Amino acid sequence: MFEADAGRREAMSKVDTAWLRMERPTNLMMITGVMMFSGPLVPAAIKQLLGERFLAYPRFRQKAVNTPSGAHWETDVDFDLDWHVRVAALPGKADKIELENFVGELASSPLDHSKPLWQFHVIENYRGGSVLVARIHHCYADGLALVQVMLSLTDTAPHPEKEAELVKTWLKHDGGNVWQRMLEPAQAGLGKALKVGTKVYEKMTAMINDPSIAADVAREGGEITRELANALLLSDDPQTSLKGPLGVIKRVAWAEPMPLEEVKTLGRALGCTVNDVLLACASGALRGYLRDRGEDVDGMTIRATVPVNLRPLEHAKKLGNHFGLVFLELPIGEANPLRRLERVAACMRELKSSRQAIVTLGLLGALGMGPQALQAPALELFSRKATTVATNVPGPQQPLYLTGVEVNELMFWVPQSGSIGVGLSILSYNGRVHFGLIGDAKRVSDPDAVTARFAEEFEKLLLITLMEDWESDIAAADAEATLQHNL
């Protein structure tokens, strides 16, 4: 099969082309994943597994080739699995800080574009177990699809039945996606948005150079084009130390996992979603970090671009990029944790009725059609409107095994684009929530100072909830009084 495909070329989709061309030394377009294990991994067994399951996707034998006239996939006739699977050992105490530093170095190192753009690193000495770090270029697929690819390498038992499929035990139905309710009204306009992509390209340069044109479109255009114009007219995000010139070094950190059931219980008590609670905690963590640096953030709101899946979950393993982006407001200037949660929840409800995700998918397609000279100013225009990228993926709520070894923890980060220098990642697995941050070293020199605050922010919300009267609605004003009296 491989020999028959040798040298074969296949046109790359316009959206995938856009992600390929977004690569910059300051923001590499890699999705980085970390899987921690309870016991030792055997590198030979990992290679065999990847050969059987990962390479069952023919795309991962292909190189991404970019040319002035477009991009295409080309089968690598010199494919060598040994080059793509590396074995490493952590220095010193081989503990969390050493692993975070190692992952940060990998996230700062570009993949070799003369080969298929992915690599796995097996770390043999970590807390009595092992770690598998994956790096895969965004042009192969979006984050949700690649998380599913990674999970397809695992089993639900140490010695599974042959051909057992994780998808049957994890994805019971499409509704498992935290964004699904948002997408139901939006997906009806998906075809229209993709068609609009060609029209977007025709008008993009004029809109970027003259905001008044976007204002006219916002007043007079149809629903989809009006949403695009409104996105173009968003104000730039306020200046904090999280925004500014980027370097080429990334830092990563993650918090100790939290019990998912506690988050669910809190969400039910406060009448909001798990997603609302977690993103409000992330907002509080960023607020505390900036205040400790002496920055005045009171009254300030920053935005996160949030990837939104635009296909049924069971189709995610088909690879490719099929998602849009929405701008979520993070009220870091709000001191009251409950009021902060209320504002996040309100913004989420508003986004559910918008077409932002559909519009940005069409925009990415338009950028993939056009010359790279157009992409840079368009990318910079949109990246100025946000400070961070935030992802929240619901993973399987049961133990997973890879080559018979149990997975203890999961974490991943999608790349940031343009001048955005911070990425937040929330992933739930086996009854626990994992929160991580990746940041440009110039913007976040100590990401552990942010991630350590995540649990503290949750504990504040929990304290407020436990001390209020559950017989009536818990209001932000009640929380203010509780905080002043107890904290």
Corresponding CATH architecture of the largest domain: 2-Layer Sandwich
* Fourth CATH level, the homologous superfamily of the largest domain: Chloramphenicol acetyltransferase-like domain
SS-derived structural category: alpha+beta
Classify the oligomer: single chain
Gyration radius (Cα, Å) is: 22 Å
Largest sheet: 7 strands, mixed
Q: What's the SSE blueprint?
A:
Elements: H1 2-5, E1 9-11, H2 14-21, E2 30-37, H3 43-52, E3 62-67, E4 70-75, H4 81-84, E5 85-88, H5 96-107, E6 118-126, E7 129-137, H6 143-152, H7 166-170, H8 180-186, H9 190-209, H10 211-220, H11 223-232, E8 250-254, E9 258-259, H12 260-270, H13 274-292, E10 302-309, E11 323-330, H14 337-352, H15 356-369, H16 372-383, E12 388-394, E13 401-402, E14 405-413, E15 422-429, E16 432-440, H17 448-467, H18 476-486
Helix pairs in contact: 2-15, 9-10, 9-11, 9-15, 10-11, 11-15, 12-13, 12-17, 13-14, 13-17, 14-18, 17-18
Structure description:
Residues 320-461 form the O-acyltransferase WSD1 C-terminal domain. Residues 12-277 form the O-acyltransferase WSD1-like N-terminal domain. Its EC number is 2.3.1.20. This is diacylglycerol O-acyltransferase. The chain has 18 helices and 16 strands. The protein is of the alpha+beta class. Residues 169-198 have low confidence and may be disordered. 42% of the residues lie in helices and 21% in strands. Helix 9 packs across helix 11, helix 14 (337-352) packs antiparallel against helix 18 (476-486) and helix 17 packs across helix 18. The strands form 3 sheets. Strands 8, 9, 10, 11, 12, 15 and 16 form a 7-stranded mixed sheet that branches. A 6-stranded mixed sheet has the order 5-6-7-2-14-13, sandwiched between helices. It folds into 2 domains: 2-169, Chloramphenicol acetyltransferase-like domain (Chloramphenicol Acetyltransferase), CATH 3.30.559.10; 180-189 and 236-397 and 417-486, Chloramphenicol acetyltransferase-like domain (Chloramphenicol Acetyltransferase). It starts with a helix and ends with a helix.
